What we know:
Layout: H1 2-10, H2 12-20, E1 34-39, H3 45-55, E2 60-66, E3 69-78, E4 93-96, E5 111-115, H4 125-133, E6 142-149, E7 152-160, H5 165-172, E8 179-182, E9 215-217, H6 223-235, H7 246-258, E10 273-277, E11 283-287, H8 308-312, H9 326-332, H10 335-352, H11 357-375, H12 383-388, H13 403-415, E12 427-433, E13 445-452, E14 458-464, E15 472-475, E16 477-479, E17 489-496, E18 503-511, E19 516-519, E20 528-531, H14 532-535
Parallel strand pairs: 1-6
Antiparallel strand pairs: 1-2, 2-3, 3-4, 4-5, 5-7, 6-7, 8-9, 8-10, 10-11, 12-13, 13-17, 14-15, 14-18, 16-17, 18-19, 18-20
Helix pairs in contact: 1-11, 7-10
Amino acid sequence: MKRLLLALIAFTPALFFAQTGKNNRPLFDKKSIGEIRITLPAKNWVNALDSMRIYGMGLMSGSITVDGAKYDGVGVRFRGDKSYQTGLKRNPFTIKLNYANQDQNHQGYPALKLSSALRDPSMVREVLFHEIAGKYMPSSQASYTKLYVNEEYIGVYVNLESVDKQFLESHFGSSGNTFFKAGVDYKPETPTTCKQNIFGSLEFEDNLDCYKGNFEMVSESGWNELQDFTRVLNKETDKIERLLDVDNTLWMLALNNVMVNLSSYSGNYSQNYYLYKDNNGRFQPIHWDLNLAFGSFKNTGRGSDLEIKDLQNLDPLLHMDNPYKPLISQLLKDSYYKKVYLAHIRQIVEENFQNGSYEKRAQELQGMIVVPYNDDPNKAYPLDDFQRSLRETVGRKSKIPGIVELMSKRARFLNSHPELTALPSSVTNVEVQGRGKFENQKLNAFRIVAKADRFPKRLLVHYRYSNTEPYLVVPMNEEASNDMPSGMKSFSVIIEAKSMDAVLDYYIIAENAGTVAFVPSNYMNKPYMVKLSDLNK
């Protein structure tokens, strides 16, 4: 109780904001707890939603108030696969604000996804994973909300940004292209000749109907495009970059591995991810359903569930030689992709786990929700388990690892792993050269120069003229120099400008014998940018 009171005192301002600033509260505000009130016409709404969920009868029409803003004609149903259980009030929810009115939304969001955080006594797994993943690739926003149904307090939920039109347009600039989710709620009849129990592994199938048992098509069409993608992935991997954003994929796989997210492509069922085909014809992977991350789900598909020590020491190259996981094994056959993937793992560990920032953030998240969690009449775990769950294993049978218990030792294991100890080149003196002081002729190209140490094999410049375009890649040329320290080399490259007002985004990858380095390190969100007009001043 003493810890409960201290947490309440520490986070009173955030709670006060949630109570008094409802009308102005951003839906995914990280510093306050939201409030969602659903009104449904059925008195026994749990049984009604169970029936609709089991028999696939669509959504129940009702009304909702989100942080003080009321909407009528919304559609409500229980969601989830393994996280859904009949007879429970505290099931995950899907709420479609645009159910009756396609233009209805809350702050631009047409749908709400509420997670019950099944098998997560800490209540932080999804929020923490999405926050870390969002530093490196497109990832849903996640926050907390209190849920009421017909004026009854159901509990505190994780409020997840739906992977829908708003999300896709925000991250990829489009929303109407081919779109799939790995995993199906209702498995259709498929031909007996289909490969069995391959789930969303992206193995190639000759029969299009075989894919329908493992993927849900969210778009209106696209089965042929999914089949073509799996064919190239499995049989013509050297051409995969035309159909897949490989770097985003390597980030997804690295994040899953570091944070032991085995309820994903990296685990037994190859599930809980989306594939969206952007306007450049490349599939983009997107995480989903992260409540079992940080070792809550323990099966890799090879043998029985892993023990805590096995989870702490999970091989960073898990499935590298597994032909039934082609998204991993086929990509990592390429020595360069393997270096990039391992460099991503190293960066995730250094920026989030070696420095302990994940633990501090997990404590902040728990402190913010401790009071509504304690008041939750339907919570799956007592308050003591909630408070112990960051540092200790919870559950005699489920044995859900404490997040710090898992990740403190995992960070040390990865930090000393022989595949991750190679020292990257340091890239310095990065510059785009401008027009000389007394030169009259204006530049019509970008000349990029840089230096790198530790015997770099090559430097690659990735560049684009718009954030809606994929990066193009060009190798830099090594320049002769006699006054450089041992192992240091100079490089340059000239990139022709599209126009005299061209703006160039770019980043550099330096490859040496052991690994790669990225400059700038946060190139995913903030690449270097230079305007040709500035160079000509």
